[in-house]
Specification:
Layout (H helix, E strand, L loop, with lengths): L5 E5 H11 L3 H4 L4 H6 L14 H17 L3 E5 L7 H5 L12 H17 L2 E3 L6 H12 L5 E5 L12 E6 L3 H15 L12 E4 L1 H8 L6 H8 L16 H8 L2 H9 L4 H15 L6 H6 L1 H11 L20 H11 L9
Parallel strand pairs: 1-2, 1-4, 2-3, 4-5
Antiparallel strand pairs: 5-6
Helix pairs in contact: 1-4, 1-6, 10-15, 11-12
Amino acid sequence: MANEKFILIDGSSMLVTNYYGNLPKAIMFEKDPVKKEKLYSQIMHNAQGQYTNAMFGMMRTILKIIDEQKPTHIMFAFDMTRDTFRREKYAEYKANRGDTPEPLREQFVNMENMLKEMGFQVLFDENYEADDIVGSVAKHYEKEIPMFIITKDHDYLQLVSEYTRVWLIQTKQETATELQAKYGSEYGWDSKLVAIPDKAFEVTPDLCLKEYGVRPEQIPDLKGIQGDTSDNIPGVKGVSSAAIPLLAEYGTVEGIYEAIDACGDDKEQKELAKKWKEELGISRSPLKALIEYRDMALLSKDLAEIRKDYPFGVDLDGFRLNIDKSKAKEQFEKYGFKSLMDKL
């Protein structure tokens, strides 16, 4: 579709980033939960006492993105719960994460409602995560319209394709600028000519391989071996550094195990380990750990894989950008976002 652009936003990622980015330092550095809660009154809020620091920052970001990128289609996906199908497969999935602070929990509900009131397409589900929803929409429409995903979550890199790009948000603008400079000359990037959102680095299939060591479709395999501490995905203990050379050689986790299974005895396994050392540069043999934790490797890959079968039931035109400005003004007045009025 000529001159059309579909931006898919990980709403949970963006809201959380803005919550902590706009949190008073006294709260950020307070370790005692009771004392921290007593400081909540310092968080930005409206006349009714509803917390708004994350909502204000996110809405300001959204309006800036729309102004600069001129998307024709846009959507937001949110996580509704951690108790999705992944936790049914592995009870410890994301079990390392603490409870969502009440000021943030409240803003999730209010932000979702605000976006819907303004006319945006907002999707969430009890059994699927935000990345599954984004992946399903992107996969369904990516050959019809250019797709650009905005997130800070590296899991989304597996969705990068000829048709879909990920604008990966970095912690600091300096990091994004360094990455753009690193690959700019090779890929013809110029930030003066190509508008990329603040703190973002655009990942293409080639850049995914060069920067992260694997092709986009291998991201679940990489996490299958290395695990992912942020999501409490275990992977295979002690094999982290061998993951990239093994995947370069065999392509997938299953391919690695096919090579292992092809060994008829201990002698052939030792020859395989020798091959890995001499040809792949893997000094410490991961063979024993891979054999011991085979089930965990395959489970970890499955947990890391973004699903693309979410039945979102919205046609492409249903994602078309069409802000209801009168409703937007009502929402901005309700939450005290007067400084954003003129940006509409």
